[in-house]
Amino acid sequence: MNKIGILLLWTILCFACEKESSNPGPVEPEPLLAVPPGFPAPDFPQDNQLTTARWALGKKLFYDPVMARDSSISCASCHHAGKAFSDTVALSPGVAGRPGTRNASTLANIAYHPYFTRDGSVPTLEMQVLVPIQEHNEFDFNILLIAERMMRDTSYVRMSREAYDRDPDAFVITRALACFERTFVSGQSRYDQYFFQGKKTALSAAEKRGMALFFSEKTNCAQCHGGFNFTNYALENNGLYTEYADPGRFRLTGLETDRARFKVPTLRNVLLTAPYMHDGSLQTLERVVEHYNSGGKPHPNKSALLRPLGLTTSEKADLVAFLRSLTDESFVRNLKFQPE
To answer: Is 29 helix (H, G, I), strand (E, B) or coil?
Structure first.
């Protein structure tokens, strides 16, 4: 073989090897549950362990208006994936456009909550599924009738049997939705990259100043919004009003010491979860910071931690900058949580 032939053969072999090596091969599917650094693994009940079949059934139900009396809304109508599974309005409309009674909380990291609803009245996520179903201003329906609807859909019957080895019923509905929601784990914000993953350039100078202020004794923010999920889950009064239209936990216990107490919310993805407070009355993070800077309004049950802070304009801006750094873009854009 002459030199030109040898050169041509060598070129072909090089390109063939390069093409072969650039082939990434089969892509591993994303796991249903990814636990970020610094987070514990969520606890799944013994009768509702995570499986692909259960997760898929829960996702289908989450986006299906089969849950509502008039089939006009679904879970996703008030809990948008792109808003960290919260809503954009103060009170989300239910069936027939009836306004909800409380602001729709984010479902991000809901697996870690020790109890559920704004007043902490429900002990398990499976039981919480029942709340919007029967609420007059939400789905206004009966879970047994939802199961009847599902029985008329062959795909639901098949998926229920695959997931729980039984036909659609209340057990299947509550377990599947809870199984899906427990995988809403959010822990890849720029704060997480800085604090848990050692990426020291992840936060700006203003965000670092805001972080120092957040965790300082000057503000005491972390006393209620501490831990990996930025909440202690306590039931507190934050001095939003002197008189509350919503009685809070008092509705459950009848105790005056529980009047206008609500569960401390997580601050993860807080930039995306406006409007804020139990009634959605504060529209911006700046207004939230200003509320706490003022010390709040007088109320018999107001937390003893609340007092005027005397923050400067620049300190308030730094706090807001830090709160913005808690946004997890990978979570809110994750295609596995989007509707099919």
So the answer is: coil
Phi, psi of 282 (to 5 degrees): -110, 125
- In the chain the domains, ranked by start, together with CATH numbers, are 46-185 (1.10.760.10), 190-331 (1.10.760.10)
Q: If you ran DSSP here, which 8-state letter would residue 232 be given?
A: -
Residues 6+ apart with CB under 8 A from 190: 202, 203, 207, 325, 327
Distance CA 38, CA 197 (A): 9
Rounded to 5 degrees, φ, ψ at 263 are -65, 135
Q: Which amino acid is at 332?
A: V
For residues 99 and 117, give the distance between their C-alpha atoms in angstroms, rounded to a whole number: 17
pTM: 0.91
Q: What is the dihedral of CA 109, 219, 239, 100, to 10 degrees?
A: -20
pLDDT tens-digit readout, 143-168: 999 999 999 999 999 999 999 999 99
Could you tell me where the DSSP H helices lie in 205-312? 205-214, 221-224, 250-253, 285-294
Residue carrying structure tokens 């398990």 = 124
CA torsion angle for 68, 340, 103, 226 (degrees, to 10)?
Answer: 140
